[in-house]
Each structure stands twice: as C-alpha cells, then as structure tokens.
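Run folding on both entries below.
>entry_1
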Amino acid sequence: MTQLTVIILTQNEALHIARAILSVRDVADRILVVDSGSTDGTVQIAARHGATVLRHGWVNHAVQFNWALDQIVGTPGWVLRLDADEVITQTLADEIKAGLPEDVDGCYIGRGIKFMGQLVKHGGVFPISTLRLFRNGRGRCEALWMDEHIVVAGATTHLRGQVIDDNRHPLDWWVEKHNGYASREVVDVLNVEFGFLPCAGALPGHGRASVKRWVKRQVYARLPAGLRAGAYFFYRYVLRLGFLDGAQARSFHILQGFWYRYLVDAKLGEVRRYMAANGAAPDKAIRDVLGIDVAPAQPAKKVLVA
C-alpha cells in the first residue's frame, strides 16, 4: 500500500474533523492536523482520533499548507491535501490501497460538493478535478491568497475516486466564509495588475485548472465589472443546466455563481476608489479597506500540541 501523509488545516472544525480523519484512517500512515487557534475542541478531537496536531498562526491557505509540508521534509511517500469538511470516497481509498503509479509525481482527484446536504450535479462545474495527491518533496502550493493549487515537478495522472466537500455549518456561516474569500480574491486580482506580492509557483499550461485560470484572467477579467457576474451565472445556470439541480444545489449556483462573483467586483471597486481618492498603494488600500495585511509573514516555530 502507498505510504501516505494526510494534511488537514483546521480552525474551529469540531463539527467535521472526526469525520475527515475517519475517512482516511485506513489509508494514511500519518494524519497531520495544522490548527490555527481553534477554541471549540477541534484539537482535542483530532488528537483523540489519532492525528498529530501542530499549531501555526494563520496567514492564508497557501502559507499554512506549505508550512505543513516543511514539517514533513524527508518523510517518504505521498501527501494528500484534505479539507476538514471533506471525506474521501471508497473508490479513492481503494485506489490508494492498491498503490499509486510509480511514474508520476501527482494525481488529480475529482471534488464533489454537497450544499446544504444536496450534491451539486449540474452547472458544468462539478466534480472539479484538482491535484490533491502528490509525492512528498515534489509538490508545493502556489503563493496565492485565493484559488491556490498544488504544483508538481513531474508528470501527473487522474484517479477515479473523489473527495466530497460536505460542510454541515448553517448558511450564515457559508456567507461569512465567502465574504472573506471575496476579500482574498481582491488581493490576487490587484496583485496580478500591480505585482506588489511575490507569486511563487504557477500552474502548468495544461489541465482544467490552468485553462480555467486563463479564462478567468484573460476573458472574464476583461468584461465590464457590472456585467461579468451575470454573464457567468447565465453560462452556469442556463447554458450548463444548473437549473436542473435540486433546490439546495440551485441556491448554490445563485450564491456562488452570481452573488459571490458580484461581491468580488463590489469589493474590488471599493478598493480602487480608495486608491484613487487617497493616492494609496494597493497594499495600503487593501489593509485599510479590507482589513488584510499582505506584508510577508514572519516564520513561526512549530508547536506540537498532541
């Protein structure tokens, strides 16, 4: 069986963490939970279910995940990136148990989403194929604030199994989370334009993720800010048949496919107006308007919790 380390980043994930750990316990040699200050018992639950728990202050997902990779330098085998509210399917577990290919550095895995308990099936979006499984030492997370991906040095392949995102928090939590996502996406949009932050790593020029990013930056970004959210929603909900989904999944298309995209544009406009009115640099405007300090984070020491 493949030697595997599973990395899970957490902050107040008591509702989900046991389920995530249990889904990979039979295929993982080590489960590493990196916690950024949970106060709801997440750390204790993770430790009780056999995970090694480390604490590290949060900057963004890329910084946190790469820090986790730095803690397992030299560990043989593969790494699986798993969110705390995700589980792996039995098909994926069986593929890992059977042994991963010897001639690749990474494996793309489909990611399905359940929204308010209902699987999203339409809209031309899911399952999303992302690189989640890779040889330790051969992959790194892009230094982005949003929509970051794992980049590997060598060849890749696709597996049949999936991870399923099944968050059980109420809708208010989802809205607040995506409000934060929108602010982080504004950071990346402005950084592409002004280059005030380094961007380590880049997606190779093939695969669905790289094509999606090219379309987003070269086509979507050139559309008028007041229209592009609506155009994307029409594509996803009408042309790609999102309206055929169930009631909860249709809500997902409306909220994530229109409301979220419009929110990003509204926040982007707010920051741009502040820059123009105050002669402010992008990083200062982001800090003053969005409350995000994009200054490079200072390295933190590893703290073993359990």
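>entry_2
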Amino acid sequence: MLFFHGKRIFSAIFDMDGTLFDTERLRFKTLKQASVEIFGKALSEDTLIGSLGLSATKAEALAKAHNGENFPYAEIRKRADELELEYVRNHGVPIKAGLLEVLERLRKSGLTMAVATSSRRAIAEEYLINANVLKYFDITVCGDEVSQGKPHPEIFLKAARALNCEPDQCFMVEDSENGMLSAIRAEGQAILIEDIKPPAAQIKAGALKAYRSMHEFLADLSECVPDLGMPALSEPFPASLNQFSVGIHGFGAIGGGYLTQVFSHWDGYTRPREIIAATRSRMLRESVNAFGRYSVRYGATSFDQTIDNVRMIDLDDDDAVIGMYTTAEIVGLSLPEQAIRNQAKVIAKGLLQRFERRGRELTLLIVLNKVGGAAFVRRHVQAELALLCPPAIGEQVLEKTHFAETVVSRIVSKLSNDALVRQLRIKSQMFQNSLEDEPAVATKASTPVPEYERLIGRFRPFAQPSSAMSQLHLILFNSEPDMPLYVEHGSELLERLRQVKTVPDITQIQVIKNRLWNGPHAVVAWYASLLGHDSVGQGMGDARVSELAERLIRHEVGPALVAEYPHMAEVVSRFADTFLERCATSFKDPCARVGRDPLRKLQRNERILSSIDLARKHGIETPALTFGAALAIHHALRCEDSKDQEAQAIRQVYRENDASVEAVLTRDGDCNGKRFPGLHPIRDEQLITAISEAFRQYPQRDMATRRDDLCIGA
C-alpha cells in the first residue's frame, strides 16, 4: 500500500502506448507510411492525434470520417502493425525515460499492477516481453478483450476487478485525452503523464496529479516510498536495469574498486544498464571485456562482490571517451591532477558534444584528494572550452554540468599486473578442464526435433557450460568495507543514489579526511617500507609502525582538527578510528603504491606540512609529523620505482645540492605542471631545521636491516 497525496493506493493500472512506451510517435510514422503505400496519401496529423487512446473500431470511424467511407483503414492498420513490429524487433521498444524506476518503486511498495491498453493482445504481449517489463504486471487487459474502448471506462474497470481492487484505490496512469476520460469515468486515481498532445484543461483538472514526464512522477513518488538507507556491504545489487549509462574516467583503485559499486547500488530499485570505464591498461581492458565482469575482494569480511555490465574503453581513444561523456548520465572522474590537466581537452569536447546533441545535464563526480577539486576540474575544462566554442556556448555547457566535490571514506588497492596474469592462467586452465569434462549430447538423426529444441539450438553455439562460467570472475581490487561516498549538495541525481551521503559543505570533511588519512597513510607506508615490510597491514604488525600511526592520529593530527573544528569532533573521531582499523588489516595495500609521489606530499599546503602548521597553531607538538616529513625524503632516496618521477625529482635535488634536505624542502621548481610551493628558507627556518635534524638522526644506508636505529623516540 502507498499513501500518495492523501489517497491510499493498492494497485496501479498503466496504459501502454505513449505511457509505458514512446510508441505513439512510432505509430504515427508507420501509419503514415502504410497509408502512403496503400492509399497513396498520408494520414493527417488531425486524424492521428484524434485517434490517440481510441480503440481500433473508433479510430477506424474517425479515419473514415476524415477520408471517406471507402478509406481502407483495416488494411492500413495491418500494414502499420507489420512496420511497427519490424522496427521493434530490430531496434527494441522505446521505453519512457524513468519508467523502470517507477515500476520498481511501485512493486516494492506492495502494489499489484496491470496494463490496460487499446492495442491487441498479440501486439501488447510482444512489446511487454521485448521491453522486459511484463514481469511487473499481474494482468493485462487489451483492446480486443473489451466491447467498448476508451474513452469508455470498461477497460480500467475490468483491470481493477481483476486485481481485486476498488477503482478509487488504483492509480490509472494515462497520457492521452481519451485515456484520461476513461480513467476519470472509472473513478480511479487518474495520473497524467503528458506525451504528444496534452488533454484539454478541464480533463487535465480531473487528474489526481499531472506531470510533464515520467521523471516528474518518479520524483513525486520517491517522496512516498520508503528510504532504503545505506546498503549493507553484502546486499545484492538491484536486479532490474534502468536506461542509464554511467561512466568511469580513470579505472584505478577508486574508480574500479569503489565508484562502480556506488553506481551498481544506484537508488536500490534499479541500476544502470551499462558502466563504461576508461583505462590505459590494455590488460585490464581485454580482461574485463572478455569476462564481462570482475570482482572486488573485501578481505576483512571474506566477501567477493561482482561488478557486471561493464564495458572498457581506451583512455587514449578520444572518440570513445567523448562518446562516454555524451551518453552517460553521470561520470566518475578519478584521475590524478596531472592526468586531469592532460584529459581536460577531451572532457571539454565530450561535454560540448553532449550539449549539442542532447542538451542534457551531466553530473561529474570528482574524486580527487584535494580541497577544491571540483573548482580545479572546472577551471581546466573551462579553459579548453574557450578554445573550442564561443564564450556564450561554453557558459551554457558549464551550466549544464554539475561538478560534484567528493570525499571517499574507503581504502582500495588494485592488484598488480603479475597477480592478474596468475589469475588468468589459473582461470584459463579451470575453464579448459571444464570444457573437456562436458559430456557430449547424443542425438539421432531420425528423431523428430521438437520446436523448443530447434529454438534452443540457435543459442547453444554461443553458450558456455555454466559450471565453467561460474568460476570465471577476476579479482581486480582489494577493498575495505566502508560504504558512504560524501558529496556536496547540488545534483538531484546524487540525492537518489543510495550509497551517496550528501552534505551542505564538503570542505571541512575533505580537510578532515585528507589530514587524517592521506598524510598519515603515506607516512605509515614509508616507515613500513623502510623497515622491510611490503604492505601497510604487515607494517602495522611492527610496534614501531603502529605506535607512529597512533601518535600521528591520536596525539597530533586528530587533536589539531578537533581544536580547529570543534563541532566536527564526532566526524574526526569516526575517521580516526576507521583509519587505524583499516591500516591494521590492509595486508593487500602495498607500501609502494601508498607511498608513491612523495614530492606533492611535501608541498607547503598539502597533507603533512599543513597538518604541522595546524597543530602548531593550537599549541600541539608534532614530533611524529616532523618525522614523517623526513621519512618522505628517505623513501624517495631508496625508491626503486622508475615510474615515480616525484621520487626521482627529490633524489636529483638532494644529490645536486650536496645531500641537502633543506634544498628538497625549499625546492623551487615544477610539480605536476605547476609551481612547487615548498617551505620558505627564512620564514620556515625552524621547521626546516627540525625536519633536517629528524632526517640526520637515521642512517641513510641499509635502512631495512638496521631497524633498531629507526624509532621515533630517538
């Protein structure tokens, strides 16, 4: 039962053409074509619009009134049916945007449902099956099963009786004037979803509610259905697919291991029909596209979650990325700063093409460990738009794009390429063994083949043994189980996503999360690595690492944040507890990955040094943070990853300046395409001295073996 605008609703009865499906326009086209073929002249718009919602008999009478008694309407209608079916079988039924979300909400609210259509049963059933929505309806009443068509109320009354429901307790959802008259005369709760021709004002006034689109009805309906709340980790994704495509621009740890989950849970009622994900990794693209799905492993709960309906594209294929921005309803942008600078042009092209072709708004979900990340992306996209189109068009494109700032409360790591290859090798052997074990099916040539066997035979060459396929899911990411994605208010779409927690001001949460997680996370990884540990979880088993983590969080960064934002003390405590708990079990979180890019972490306004400033502002001593800054340089000097250009830059400055820590900290140069904001030699002299002293206290060689020399209390 649903309580909707003062009415108790137990059932919902839907018209089909023009309400469930956008077929009225298709019907107009096929009737015109059939009329030209048979009669030599197209039916007029007046005839077509006047026949909306009418039974075949009444539509024929109207056509003959306009074209003469000899008008071959029955023959034209039959030919139009053939043309329409041909289109539907080749292209599918055009479903009204928002329909599936509406049907899911009504069904999960306990309503029984019916279709009441003027179309013949043969047509209606084919359309409902083709569109995969027949499952929502308990009964169907068709035009060839009633004696009087719309606007007579018979068809709605018959459907209500079949549902054992009083008409005044039924939604009767229509798009046409004749359909509305039928629903009103049946004394149902008429819901108008406008289509080609809005009903006359006096008829529209008889509706319980009138909407310009199914999405408007959905928004109103959403206020009346239960709030499903944040999903549990192991809760299945919705079974029904909606009409949306979504995009992931950057299929890294967060993009592939978190945003895909957020999009798959969607609103709890449906989920997107396709996730388009862009990555440069050919191995990832080929692997996911071959299997059609992949899994994220939550080691702390021994749970593997499978993400399907994923299509991978090449990040360097501009046309494919532009196409993603054109078609997707929401895009998760999860790239580093420099990559965003490099991709700004293709993003701008995608937004411009979307504006020109669709004119629809786009939500751009920006996952960037940076306060002001949305403004950063918008600024670079705006600069590229200025080169692509006139300023007025560029402003309209930006107005249609919601740049959504986010805070991720989860630690995710991507499996290495070597680990993926090992999985592929094992899965390949399992699949081959299963194929070899599959029993052969013996058939006799003389035995008549039943029709079902002949039909199934068309699919069999494309099917794989289910026992083999069930094993073929690849683990691509290891993740911690934290669910909420914090996003700033501003997009209606984001308000509907079940795993998204919208907040009025994201800035403070960003600062708290960045200070509590990003800086300390890197410090813990550097220390663990220097002590010879491969993962953060292993490192936390070393008392020196765990004590450093506790000191950073409980005695320096956490207290400084509470002093700065006393009203956010509970949030600080929650993030602090979560961080320490997750680090302790992050056995698949490589120190090498967490500790990469040390130069940006030593910027004046970033993570470690800014946390030192904040703590000192409130009179809090910072030996652990100072030690962490020194560890960044030690880590860079021993980094073996040739791709970590920031570590190489630190080594170069250090060596070119006679092993000077001060030269690294006050570096004057470029970092990720912009000026590096290092420490000031004079204003920050005290801090530079403290970090330099911390650096010198520890040996610069054999760090992994001389563990006793590496203790924060030295």
